[in-house]
Known about the structure:
Helix content: 10-25%
CATH superfamily: Hotdog Thioesterase
Shape: globular
Strand order of the largest sheet: 1-4-6-7-8-5
Number of domains: 1
Oligomer: single chain
Radius of gyration: 18 Å
Largest sheet: 6 strands, antiparallel
Structural class: alpha+beta
CATH architecture: Roll
CATH topology: Thiol Ester Dehydrase, Chain A
Order of helices and strands: EEEEHHEEEEH
Number of helices: 3
Strand content: 35-45%
Amino acid sequence: MVSLATSTLTFRQATQDITFENSNGSAQMKNIQLGLAGEKTTTVGDTLLTTHLGSGSIEVYATPAMIALIESAAVAAIDSLLPEAQASVGIALNVKHLAATPPGQQVWARAEVIGVDGREVTFKVQAWDEHELIGEGTHTRYVIDVARFVERAQSKLDTGAFASGDSSDPAQT
């Protein structure tokens, strides 16, 4: 049986520093450490079932709900270490949903930093229910300047497209 923890944030030895540029261009140092981990726990209720989320017809824990829990664990691992004007956004997921979980069970996700490349932070992610590993894979988040990100998203409403042109490069956010 897997021991389920409440929402926690775990710190380990610093092994890598990241330099962030804020919107004014000045460098700010924050430690995003390899091995740093975040965890989140929830109970599978009706709103987390495949039948509610539209991802299936059997009443079990939905893959989209597991993904949201995994992302929440990654946010718990790093976002509190970022300057107030910055946050992280998910940009990539490669996750397998390995086992079904019935309603009423607790599920737990853990995201551990395994790589840092500039503003990209990659996590090893896993999820468990009360009996077994139910999901595993990798997740990548990108550190953004919140004001620039929101302004760029808002520009879609103002112009119908990005004001600076169409780009899928997260560095533009």
